Amino acid sequence: MSLFQFRRPRPASGEPPDAAIESAAPRRWGRWVLAVLVVAGLHLSAMRWIEHNRQPANAPPETPPVQVELLTPEPIAPPAPTPPAPPKPAAPPKPAASPKPAAPAPKPSPAPVSSAATPEPDAPAAASAPAQMPQAQAPSPASQTAPQPSAASGDKFSVPPTGDLRYDTLVNGMMNQTGTIHWSNDGQHYEMIVSIPLPFVGPYVYSSKGHIDGFGIAPEQYSEQRGRRAADIAIFNRETKQIVYTKTPQSQPLADGAQDRFSVVMQLASLVRGAPDKYKPGVTRQFSVADNDSNEIWPIETVGDETVEARGGFTTARHFTRLPRKEGDRRKLDIWLAPSIGWLPVRILQTEPNGMQIELLWAGKLAAPPAAAQDVTSGTQAASDESAPAMPSTPAADKP
User: Fold this and answer.
1) Quick one: CA dihedral 351, 355, 356, 357, positive or negative?
2) Which of 47, 48, 274, 351 has the highest Cβ tally under 10 A?
3) Is the pTM for the entire model greater than 0.70?
């Protein structure tokens, strides 16, 4: 064998030459497939970019965002003064009755005239002058056109009349026992007791009582009892302008118009009853609300009118939602007030941070409010004269 004879080197792996050539072919096909996929991906991305950036020539303008109006607590407007009744016109004076002619007296014999008895010339005229009748003075034009004082600016307010309200309670959409809201209002003081039964835990009872002042509902004491635990109480001290708690030693300042977690529902209902047209979508009102251990600002926004299905059927209600109180706030509160039941809450939904939902859904009244219920109203009486009519319901709505 020549020293210069060429010899094909064997593969290092020890495979025969034909096997090495066959294993390289699939690798070449893999590269081609990968290249085709990359090119196809680039073409697809380019098409999506072109489609996304292609806009019609006369695209309609985007709907502008809702203008948010922020409302803060204001004093209640005093009732409009009743204009005084116009003065009655004075009756015309009656003509004096003419005296009946007297019988002619016999003429006395003439007496000798004495100079001492000569009468004064004015005496007979004064005696014979008719008596003058006093005339009533007509009201002056200035008194007729004097402007009446107008009511001061402020929130129009109408506290709902006394009544016991009944609600179906649902936990995560599952029907539970019936809950109640006892509400009493005598025009000067109020009391609110909310009872929500929960299985295996016991009832949740929330109580609020106080008076009605220049800012509306003014709680004096709020308590909440969850199941068998002792009640936690918050006391609104109006003299020291402080809120003190039994759950914690700290105290916080008491703001004008401050509410608790449940009186704020009736405060909102009273404001809407007083001026329903004021609360349009986007209007946000701030409330200072105390819990059992703290006090914070609740921004409650008007969402709009929606249809709510309750036990008695369908009704239109105005939806209010509490906006996040701070960054990361996942606890939600939604309230629906229905004009068909005097702007009382027809639905209340609270969503906990863990996703659990507790819902109160209107189920009719346990007792209708009395006809002569006291109503605290400012501005106009039209909204408060309604005695919270019951929502139209079927006979089954009265069953527990």
Assistant:
1) positive
2) 274
3) no
Q: Which residues pair with residue 181 across a beta bridge?
A: 165, 194
CA-CA distances (angstroms) from residue 307 to 111, 277, 337, 384?
111, 18, 11, 24
The pLDDT assigned to 308 comes to 94
Q: Give the closest residue to 309 by CA, choosing from 399, 389, 398, 392.
A: 392
From the centroid of its chain, how far is CA 202? 30
Residue-wise pLDDT for 238-248, tens only, equals: 899 999 999 98
Inter-residue long-range contacts of 13-17, CB under 8 Å, 24+ positions, other chains counted: none
Alpha helices in the chain (DSSP H): 17-53, 123-128, 141-144, 263-274
Out of 6-10, 358-362, 388-392, least confident range: 388-392
Question: Do the Cβ atoms of 274 and 383 come closer than 8 Å?
Answer: yes
Whether residue 1 is contained in a domain is answered as no
Asked if residue 4 belongs to a domain, the reply is no
Domain that holds residue 288: 163-369
Name which of 293, 274, 287, 355 is nearest 323 in CA terms.
287
Question: Are the C-beta atoms of 339 and 354 separated by less than 8 Å?
Answer: no
Residues in the chain: 400
Residue 48's pLDDT band (boundaries 50, 70, 90)?
low
Domains contained in the chain, number: 1
pLDDT of residue 337: 97
Write out the two tokens for 261.
């977690």
Two structure tokens written together for 220: 């004096």
- Is residue 302 one of the residues assigned to a domain? yes
Measure the CA–CA gap between 127 and 118, rounded to whole angstroms. 16
Tens-place pLDDT, residues 10-33: 555 555 555 555 556 666 777 778
Q: What is the dihedral of CA 268, 271, 275, 279, to 10 degrees?
A: -30
386 close to 373: Cβ distance less than 8 angstroms = no
Read off the tokens for 241: 């302008």
Q: Tell me how far CA of residue 209 lies from CA of 183, 201, 267, in angstroms.
A: 10, 25, 13
